[in-house]
Prior knowledge:
The chain is an alpha/beta fold. 41% of the residues lie in helices and 18% in strands. It contains five helices and five strands, in the order E-H-E-H-E-E-E-H-H-H. It has helices spanning 24-38, 54-65, 102-112, 116-131, 140-156; strands spanning 7-13, 45-52, 73-77, 85-86, 93-101. Strands 1, 2, 3, 4 and 5 form a five-stranded mixed β-sheet that branches. Mean pLDDT is 89; it is low at 163-173.
Amino acid sequence: xxxxxxxxxxxxxxxxAVKIPTGIRLLIRRCCNAVLQLEKIPGACxxxxxxxxxxxxxxxxxxxxxxxxxxxxxxxxxxxxGNYDVNPATGAKQLGDIVLCVxxxxxxxxxxxxxxxxxxxxxxxxxxxxxxxxxxxxGGIEAVRMREKEETVMxxxxxxxxxxYVPQSGDEM
Length: 173
């Protein structure tokens, strides 16, 4: 199943702290598509991804999760139990919003000893699974299932643990 032509990933950069490297937008689109393929999600889909600074993500984390501290990524799913609003103009399922703190992703990449690209890829895959209803917050088997799916997608994209993302020939922004 190929979602590449039917998945719209809207990416906005609302921060100034970190210059977004070439290829990151393509990587995010590839991550979103890979999760949708793994999960066999039919039809057209839309996802919004926003790059933000630590102040904005802390405000969102406090407002929506009652956690008054910055975090790496937040997911705002629009669907419940596989039912999503549909964009009347396109017929696409609106999966939700991913809000990614670029400076924290940069710090975590250094901390974990892998590339910024892998960190952004992982956070995107992680958030996409949240948009599709997966949850790791309670631990247990759900957390294990989510981690297995994350790693499956990351490996399929050539981003296993301790790896860098190298664009394949023909990949464009």
